[in-house]
Every structure is written in structure tokens, then in C-alpha cells.
Amino acid sequence: MSSQEKTGKSGTDNPSEHADNWADLTEKDLETLDQVSRNLMQASLKSQKLMSDVMAKALEGDPVMPQADPFHSAPEFGEVWTHIMSQPELVMQAQADLMKGYLDLWTNTTKRVVTGAEEAAIKPEPGDKRWRSKDWSENPVFDAIKQSYLLNQNFMMGLVHGVDGIDDRTKRKVEFLTKQMTDALAPTNFALTNPDVLRETMQSKGENLTRGLKNLMADLEKGRGRLALTQTDMDGFKVGEDIATTPGKIVFQNEIIELIQYAPTTETVKKRPLLIAPPWINKFYILDLREKNSMIRWLTKQGFTVFLISWVNPGPELKDKTFEDYMHQGLFAAMDAIEEATGESSVNTVGYCVGGTMLASSLAYLEATGKSERIASATFFAAQTDFELAGDLLLFIDDEWMKEIERLMDSQGGVLDGRTMADTFNLLRSNDLVWSFTINNYLLGRQPQAFDLLFWNADQTRMPKALHLWYLENMYRENRLSKGELTLGNVQLDLSKVKTPIYMQASRDDHIAPYASVYKGAKRFGGPVRFMMAGSGHIAGVINHPDANKYQHWINEDLPETVEQWYSGAEEHPGSWWLNWRDWLYERSGEDVPAREPGDGKLKALRDAPGEYVLVRSDAKREKAKEPAE
Q1: Annotated domain spans of the chain
Q2: Is a pLDDT exceeding 90 seen at residue 363?
Q3: Which single residue of 132, 391, 510, 605 has CA 20 to 30 Å from 170?
């Protein structure tokens, strides 16, 4: 059966099946090609003018552009390739494997065209979403293009991975960047080799490309000459109305935090309050996205009095704020306010990501200063306290990158622009967070859909220079907290002396806080630690409402020497880990007491949640805050 008979459409409807003979083209086909040509010409003319305008604005509004080699990788690439060329057996074997792959591909493709039999010379990795379109498997031409690309990528990656005589960090860095470059060269990312783009180009007569150009220019203009890739409709949600809607009040505020006390949803609550310290590198409402997946709302329904720190989105006026300032004016100030509001001098605490690193430091600080009773328990979400195995982010925290980061912050008034952090994290998952949107926005000419998680991801925050440089130096580069070499205010911090009960969460697929790194940190504490590993990654592994019935988690009450030993003895449980954590918290939360309404204690309500700090956007726009509470 012909491809036309299989689809029930004419061959001209699908560019991958288009007539090869110009004589076979109909008048309609010629009109379509003419319109495509006109649209492409129009796009070309527009691009010249718009690019000139954008670059002029870039020079006026944002003169500091990223350097051509911000990671200072050229010397390391040179070192790796010098070693590769000095190992002829490695090169010869890689070339032989590549040649065999191409021979298999040629043979299999010819056999498929003649007989219809399908056999792949190479297959994509499981879960690689780039090849979801049926054309990549059903059309012999595009299937061959796909396999050819994968063979070349494997060839490049194999050379770097197989070379000897290179230190592990240099090899891992070059491997990571080689993967980034080969991902960028995937045929999915080019109009002429992406079947979905070709089809859309023919059907829209090239209008998708002109729309895509407009989208590209809009993103360049938004970034003042630096590409600010749009991942979602930023007008699709409003903080405090569509997301971050759990009722509560701001009961305390200083220049670094607003403290939210959430309204109870039960008649009685546990006596000991729960204080959550989210990361200051993101907005807190990842914990309160929508009613159906909000951890905050769920916790109130379990009978906890929940307090949460909403960090300021700092401007240049706060450039000198330090990690120690964030501990004292953030976590400790919140604890003092909670005691004033509830009368409780001891709290259960939660630290997420860098908020967890600060919480661990605070535990050691309180232990050293004789005030450990202020924190009854500590829960860590995807938080590292030992950075020896901290993943791909470690590869770039070298002297040259530190100089580049400092240069960028100085050019921005002493704060790290939110775009820089967002670009860094997007790079760790570039196929999902960069190239998929490049195809959708610029090649298909579509607008991204409204998606709450991506809205949060794009709502970036700035960071003070003093805090950020200190954190990179002392945590990532020197690993001083884990080694017991960190001091805050002349107080030596020693995690091994911390006896506070700890619940430590890690995620199996976390690319920011790898579970092996989190486990290594769990071994540093001197008290009881329950280590739990959840399915999925840095966000979905944490935000997994029980009602969703998704993923799984593993629990092992023992802490053997290695995480591999821990996993071999762990028991797998279906669904969310929240219920296990809730029961652990119940044991440390005291008896039931009448529910506490925000503002009923000594601290009066200042305004409604989610407050004002969370509304400050890093693009200098500010949403209107809710009116103060009555």
C-alpha cells in the first residue's frame, strides 16, 4: 500500500512525501511555494531592521553582555582533544564504530525502502522527547536523519569519555559541554530537518516562520539584546489570585523577609508551629501553586500551624547582605516572631534547597551557642550540606567563572540578575527547557501555553553579591560546612554535634541536588536521621500531593556507609511520601490545641498573604499588592 493510501491524503499535504519531479507540481503547489518564498523574504527583511533596533537597545540599556566563553572552557577542550589525538587506538576504535554504525544504517534504510522491514542501527535513550513525532520513526528519510545524528553524537561523546590522562573534573566538564553542543545541533532544532516544522511551513505558507521571527525579536527586546526565552504565558496567572492563594496574613516584616502565618482549616492544631524556609533563589509559591497540589494548603488540613518565610527580591540597596544576615534576619527573626505570635519558643522547621543549607548551618550555630532547643526537628527538601558530589553545577565554579559572576553582578548594581540563575538551571536540562521552546516559539511560530510550574520558573529572583559569592566559595568550592571549617560570627559550626531529629528528603532524578550528595550530607549529623528518597526530580519529587497518586518513594531507617547500600535495603512504597513525613512530624508536634487565627496573638496582621515581596518581579515590574487587612 502506498503512503498516500495509508494516510488518505495527497502527497502534497506532507512535505516528507512531496513530489520529487517539478513537472508533478500542481498550480496550487506552485502558489504555495510562491507564498512561502514571499513570507521568507519578508521575514528576512524584517529581521535586519529588528535586529539593528534590538542591538541598539542592548547597547543603551544593558551594555554588559555574556562573554563568548563564560565558562572558560577553551583551555580544557584543548587539553582533552590534545590527549585524544595522542591516543590513536581510541580514535581508530571510535572511527571504526562510527563507520560500522553508518554501514548498518545504510543497509537497514535500503532494506526498509525495498521490503518495509524496520531495524535500527541506533535508538534514542528512553525518555528522549525530541523524537515524539511519528515521522521520526515512520518516515525512512527522517528516521535515517535521526539515526545519523545519534551516531555522530555517540562518536563525539565516546571520544571524550574514553580519553585517558585527564582529571575527572575536566573530563566531566568537557563531557557536559560536548553534550550541550551536540544537543544544539540536533536535527529537531532546524527547520529543514524537522518534519513538524516542514509540515507547518507548507500548511501555513511560511507564516509560522514570520511569526517565529516576531517571537524571537520580542524575546530579544525583552532581554535588551540578550535572549530571554519565553517558556509560558506570563499573563496567564496572577500571584495571589490564580496561584499562591492559600489564605493567610503577613504577621512580621523586615528588610529581608515577610513572615506568612496561614489560616487554620481545622478546629484544633498541633501545639508546636511549623516554619518553612524556602530557597531565596526562587519565589516561595512553588509550595503553593494551585489548590490541588499546594503543600501549604495540605499541611493546614493536617492540623499544623504553618508559618513561611517569603524572601525579599533584593535590589542594589541590599547588595552587601550576607549569609549570616539571612540567617539572623531571616530564620532566627522568623522564630522570634513565631514565639511572639503563638507563645511557642520551639518550632519544627523545613528547609528547601539552599534554604535547607541555611537551616543546617543554623542548627549547628544554635548547638554551638547553647540554643538548640529552639528547633525541635528539621526537615530538608532537596538540600545539600555536603557539596563533594553536588552534580553538574560543580563543574563551573572555578576561578574564571567566579570572576565572570562578580563582573556581571557589579554591572547590575551588586545583585545577580534573575536571568543568570534561570539560564544556568535551564542549561542543566536544555532539551526540555531551551530547545523545545526554541522549536515551539521560533520555528513553529506558536505562543507557549500558560503553565503554573513554568510561570514560577520564569518568575526569577535576584541575589545579593555578598551572599552569592560567599555561598559559592564556602559551600560549592571549599565545602566548609561539611568539613566543620565554617564559621559564622566567630562561631565554629560542627554538624556532627547536632542532635536534632532530622527528616531528609532527596529525589532520585534530581539534577540540582543529586540524591548521592544529599545522602552524604545526611551522614554528617550527630543525631537521628530518617533518609527518604522520592521518585522524580528536584521539583516534582518534592511537590507530589497524595491525591495525585504519582511516583513512589523509598524508606530505610538505617544509614549505612553508602547510598547504594541504603538503597539495597530500602523498601519501596507507591505514591507520595507526604503521609510518612506527616506522621513523623506528628510525633514531634505536641498535643492538640485550639486553632490559631493569624493576627490573634501579640503580632497583628499587616496585610493578606501572599504579601508584597513575592510580587516584586526581577524585570522591575511590580504587581499591585492586596489591600492591607482590616
Answers
A1: 11-18+27-62+69-222, 248-395+461-615
A2: yes
A3: 510
Residue 540, helix vs strand vs coil: coil
Q: At what angle do helices 140-162 and 74-85 cross, to 10 degrees?
A: 90
Of the candidates 35, 388, 391, the one whose C-alpha atom is nearest the C-alpha of residue 208 is 35
pTM: predicted TM-score of the whole model, two decimal places: 0.89
622: pLDDT strictly greater than 80 = no
Looking at residue 38, what is its pLDDT? 78
Instruction: Please write the tens of the pLDDT for every residue from 2-49.
Output: 444 434 344 444 544 444 454 566 777 777 777 777 777 776 776 676
The pLDDT of residue 264 is above 80? yes
Exposure class string for 321-340: b at 16+ Cβ within 10 A, else e: bebbbbbbbbbbbbbebbbe
- Ranges of beta strands (E only) in 143-296 are 248-253, 257-262, 268-270, 274-277
pLDDT of residue 70: 76
The model's confidence at residue 443, banded by pLDDT at 50, 70 and 90, is: very high
- Per-residue DSSP letters for 423-462? HHHHHHTHIIIIIHHHIIIIIS--PPPP-HHHHHHHS---
More confident residue, 471 or 228: 471
For 63, the grid coordinates are 551594555
Q: Are 204 and 190 in contact (CB under 8 A)?
A: no
Query: Hey, which residues are catalytic here?
Result: 353
Is residue 562 scored above 60 in pLDDT?
Answer: yes
Phi, psi of 555 (to 5 degrees): -130, 135
Q: Which three cell numbers stand for residue 400?
A: 574564571
- Other Cβ atoms less than 10 A from the Cβ of 434: the count is 20
Nearby residues of 266 by Cβ (< 8 Å), 6 or more positions away: 300, 301, 302, 303, 595
C-alpha grid cell, residue 562: 553508602
Q: Does the CA dihedral 436-438-443-449 come out positive or negative?
A: positive
Mean pLDDT along residues 352-381: 98
Residue 404 in contact with residue 73, Cβ under 8 Å? Answer: no
Task: Give the DSSP letter string of 371-437.
Answer: -GGGEEEEEEES--S--TT-GGGGGG-SHHHHHHHHHHHHHTTSEE-HHHHHHHHHHHTHIIIIIHH
248-395+461-615: CATH topology is Rossmann fold (3.40.50)
| Tens digit of each residue's pLDDT (9 = 90 or more) over 153-192 | 999 999 999 999 999 999 999 999 999 999 999 999 999 9
Helix H or strand E segment including 534 = strand 529-534
393-405 mean pLDDT: 88
- Type of residue found at 291: E
CB 488 within 8 A of CB 323: yes
